[in-house]
Amino acid sequence: MKKYISTLIVFFVFSLTLCVAQSEKPAVKEDFKPSTLNQPGKEYPMVNSQGYARFRIEAPEAQSVVVSLGLGGTRGGTPLAKNDEGVWMGTTAGPMDEGFHYYHVTIDGGVFNDPGALNYYGSVRWESGIEIPAHDQDFYALKNVPHGHVQQILFPSASTETSRRAFVYTPPGYYKNQSKSYPVLYLQHGWGEDETAWMNQGRANLIMDNLIAEGKIDPFIIVNTYGMTNEIKFGGLRNFDVTPFQTVLVDELIPYVDEHFRTIPDQAHRAMAGLSMGGMETKDITLNRPEVFSYYALLSGGIYAPEDIKDHSNLKLVFISCGSKERPDGVKNAAKALKDAGYNAVSYVSEGTAHEFQTWRRSLYQLAPLLFKE
Q1: Which GO terms describe its molecular function (predicted)?
Q2: How many angstroms separate the CA atoms of 75 and 78, rounded?
Q3: Is omega for the bond preceding 45 within 30 degrees of 0, making it cis?
Q4: Mean pLDDT of the chain
Q5: How many Cβ atoms are within 10 Å of 176's Cβ, its own excluded?
Q6: Which among 8, 46, 160, 282 is least surrounded, fewest beta carbons within 10 Å?
């Protein structure tokens, strides 16, 4: 009898605690506003001050509508419900991480983009995008400061028998002071994305403009090109051969940029960085061709061990980062091991984010002031 009473008390306490926890869950605030990434004049999708997202899809004949969030819809789905007017609406079950997110809509099994949102290249297709306002979004905000230029270039590639595309960021003042030359950061996207990602989703140009205006960095050029990654299907990335892209980058793109832009064309003034699979490319290329770059950065893209770079005598910086929802201990421990071995190594962990662009925006913001310091 005593055992039964004790069990009953434990169950009662557990039930009471659960009820209290559920009652303490904050209500969803009805202060929703259109996402800043909406198509012109479109009200939905919307976001509120807590980070919830609300969607509205007009599909009166549909039987099921689900919004899938994250690269490739990997964050799960938000089912929408149809109202009497045949309009499907729904709100995410919880707040989303701050920053940019891809998403798409599945209607009766077919995958579509949200007609209310702008599109961004991710998941090896153009996906809808939504922006959850961040507490630190000022560092990539569009401000009344001098702005650099982002231009598309087409460079010849003998190895692929075609002309390839890259985007080049030149800092404010580049075209006024014709006597000044600049270091270059070659900055790579991740799997499923392309050379448009860093300037569009990542807002790299605005991050640079703001850092330069605040006097926090010396200006440098950024180059983005396609990493030839998307021919590999997700899940088979271990079979990726970096050699063709290494040829394009090192033997074709870099000489073209050095010839057509005012760069300082030497190892000491050249950096390579990449997010996710672009980090894997960065690691492979910097290990294969250590004479090309002096600054290495992996953003959610793996780590270096001291034995990896033991012969890299001109290496000036190793930067390793990730989100706090990824594997931060691995990043921190790797940087410590490099420091203990005598290397200039820096780790950074983006608090409250995962494998997503807010992590990589913050990482670039932390990385840029460390580059090209004499």
Answers
A1: acyltransferase activity, transferring groups other than amino-acyl groups
A2: 10
A3: yes
A4: 92
A5: 7
A6: 8
| Statement: residue 8 has pLDDT above 50 | no
Instruction: Specify the long-range contacts of residues 12-18, CB closer than 8 Å, at least 24 apart.
Output: none
Q: How far is CA 285 from CA 21, 54, 148, 248, 304, in A?
A: 51, 42, 28, 11, 13
Q: How many CA atoms lie within 13 A of 237 on its CB side?
A: 15
First-to-last alpha carbon distance for the chain, in angstroms, is 78
What value does the mean pLDDT take over residues 57-72? 90
Tokens of 280: 């894997």
Are the folds of 33-133 and 138-370 the same?
A: no
Residue 190 near residue 278, CB atoms below 8 Å: yes
Indicate the CATH number of 138-370 among 3.10.20.80, 3.40.50.850, 3.30.70.100, 3.40.50.1820. 3.40.50.1820
Whole-model pTM: value is 0.91
103 and 68 in contact (C-beta within 8 Å)? yes
Residues 6 or more apart whose CB falls under 8 angstroms from that of 337 comprise 305, 306
Q: Read off the DSSP letter of residue 25.
A: S
| Cα–Cα distance measured from residue 163 to residue 133, given in angstroms and rounded to the nearest whole number | 38
**Closest CA relative to residue 150, chosen from 212, 216, 211, 200:** 200
In the chain, where the domains are located: 33-133, 138-370
**And the tokens for 15?**
């039930």
**CATH 2.30.30.90 corresponds to the domain 33-133:** no
